[in-house]
Amino acid sequence: MSQILPNENRPTPTIEDYLAIIYVMQRDGEEVIAARLAESLEVSPPTVTVTLKRMERDGWITTEGHKGISLTDSGCEAASTVIRRHMLTEWMLARVLKVPWSHVHAEAHHLEHAISGEIENSMRTSLDDPQLCPHGNPLPGYEYVIAGWAPLTELAEGQQVIIRRIHETAEDDPDLLDFLEANGIVPGVQAQLKKILPFNNTITLQVGGHEVTLGFSTARFIFVEAM
Ligand SMILES: [Zn+2]
Ligand SMILES: [Zn+2]
Predict the structure, then answer these.
(1) Is the dihedral of CA 33, 34, 38, 41 positive or negative?
(2) pLDDT per residue over 135-159, tens digit each?
(3) What is the C-alpha to C-alpha distance for residues 193 and 159, in angstroms, rounded to an integer?
């Protein structure tokens, strides 16, 4: 168990995971329903139902109204905190410990629950207050930074782009991250959309002298800036 200050009133690691996923779904304008949470968290629907009841009782979420599940103010604050600590941890692992880009998410996912407010502040200062995580996803409050970036699936053939962001959903797939890193598809890299084959659901990118073909199901999680 992590050292938790008694006055911090902090949710358990499990609840923090739920809060972070609900925050991201809400941010993306998706409907938050138990079935989708079960899928994302890889747990059974009955487990999700029980946990959601507990979260509602404890004031983190509300299920009133017809908008499905939504975060209360304290739920939103707790979610923002754990997401921020996760992303700062990713940077610390990448910059200080030189952990490969494709591995920092999985490592940070364990460590994020043990970061105190004091450590978070030191991390923020020593990492120069980042607005995005190493995958290009925004720290809470910096959503405006990503507003002009579009998923690869929305661009036209021939378009030159800069890779900017690999969505949180894709961060959860270690094999996909390994593939992207091995092929140089990481934030800051220039690429060109060589070929789009809608009947095949594929997009071929030219990246640094080689071509890489991605399925639409992967391409929709890769956000780019058109040049
Ligand atoms: Zn992450
Ligand atoms: Zn990240």
Answers:
(1) positive
(2) 999 999 999 999 999 999 999 999 9
(3) 5
Q: Judge residue 44's burial from the number of C-beta atoms within 10 Å of its C-beta, 0-12 exposed, 13-18 middle, 19 or more buried.
A: exposed
Burial of 65 (0-12, 13-18, 19+ CB in 10 A): exposed
State in Å: Cα 1 to ligand 1 middle: 21
Neighbours of 135 (CB within 10 A): 23
DSSP run (H or E) holding 110? helix 101-111
Q: How far is CA 84 from CA 17, 39, 142, 213, 225, in A?
A: 13, 23, 11, 33, 24
User: 168-189, pLDDT tens digit by residue?
Assistant: 999 999 999 999 999 999 999 9
> Strand 70-71 and strand 150-151: pairing?
unpaired
Nearest to 197 by CA among 218, 213, 221, 176: 213
Q: Return the ligand number nearest the Cα of 20.
A: 1
CA of 37 relative to ligand 1 center, distance in Å: 17
What spacing in Å lies between the alpha carbon of 19 and ligand 1's midpoint? 14
Q: What gap in Å lies between CA 72 and CA 56, rounded to an integer?
A: 9
Instruction: Look up the pTM and report it.
Output: 0.93
Distances (CA, A) of 26 to 10, 15, 37: 21, 16, 12
